[in-house]
TrEMBL record:
This is small monomeric GTPase. Keywords: GTP-binding, Hydrolase, Lipoprotein, Magnesium, Metal-binding, Nucleotide-binding, Prenylation, Protein transport, Transport. InterPro entries: P-loop_NTPase, Small_GTP-bd, Small_GTPase. SMART domains: ARF, RAB, RAN, RAS, RHO. The gene is RAB37. Gene3D superfamilies: P-loop containing nucleotide triphosphate hydrolases. It comes from Catharus ustulatus. GO terms for molecular function: G protein activity; GTP binding; metal ion binding.
């Protein structure tokens, strides 16, 4: 979370350069997570990708990111994000490392102009609604209109129905999420930042797609994100339809 005195001019970029294998990624992980990950070396693809989390306030974006980053769930009092925040995570995809810089945006309307400035830098967008909030689902069309206005034309978009663990309060049917996603041609799944259901899969599918776009070996068939998600995702419950 960034404080009220948020100032874009204070954000700066540091670039690590050097031969393959000298330890650039390990240095970043040490700085970011305070630990060294031993093991066999695998090369990094590209210079990293930016993924943005979008959706109404309270749908669970911050929790979704923390579950992926630290494997933990922040329960208790809800504290809305102010402005924008980011975390780095390195994921292994088909024997190479893909660096993701994940931007957690504030869902509240009053921070919308801050968020708009970052859309153009994102290669992928995870758009969340809360399955217990019909309003957050109804607002997805407005989010997609904004995305088409501000984001890059070829941005990877994924629709996620979060809080799938709270099936007793479900207000949006799984099939309605799936049908909206089909209408816009984007992949879809239900997730839970609380239990971790499909959280890693969402980022992994994004990382695979972005890696494929960065290095596209001619002899390999193109990665199909829709098919990959359909084959890998865990259903929230067989009887969750309301
Ligand atoms: N049961 C359940 N609760 C969740 C889940 N994800 C988030 N929550 C709760 O929902 C509330 C809002 O979560 P946040 O992650 O802060 O929401 P946000 O989308 O980041 O909100 P803004 O920062 O205002 O945009 C918190 O009280 C969380 O504990 C989930 O998957 N299941």
């Amino acid at each position: 979370m960034v404080g009220d005195g948020y100032n874009e001019a204070l954000l700066h970029k540091t670039i690590l350069v050097g031969d393959s294998g000298v330890g650039k990624t390990s240095l970043l992980v040490q700085f970011d997570q305070g630990k060294f990950i031993p093991g066999s070396f695998s090369a990094t693809v590209g210079i990293g990708f930016t993924v943005m989390l979008l959706g109404d306030s309270g749908v669970g974006k911050t929790c979704f990111l923390l579950q992926f980053k630290d494997g933990a769930f922040l329960s208790g009092t809800f504290i809305a994000t102010v402005g924008i925040d980011f975390r780095n995570k390195v994921v292994a995809v088909d024997g190479v490392k893909v660096k993701l810089q994940i931007w957690d945006t504030a869902g509240q309307e009053r921070f919308r102009s801050v968020t708009h400035a970052y859309y153009r830098d994102a290669q992928a967008l995870l758009l969340l609604y809360d399955i217990t909030s019909k309003m957050s689902f109804d607002n997805i069309r407005a989010w997609l209109t904004e995305i088409h206005e501000y984001a890059q034309k070829d941005v990877v978009i994924m629709l996620l129905g979060n809080k799938a663990d709270v099936s007793s309060e479900r207000a949006v049917r799984t099939e309605d999420g799936a049908s909206l996603a089909r209408e816009y041609g984007v992949p879809f799944m239900e997730t839970s930042a609380k239990t971790g259901m499909n959280v890693e899969l969402a980022f992994l599918a994004i990382a695979k797609e972005l890696k494929q776009r960065a290095v596209q070996p001619l002899d390999e068939p193109r990665f199909q994100i829709h098919e990959y998600i359909e084959s890998q995702k865990k259903k929230s419950s067989c009887c969750a339809f309301s």
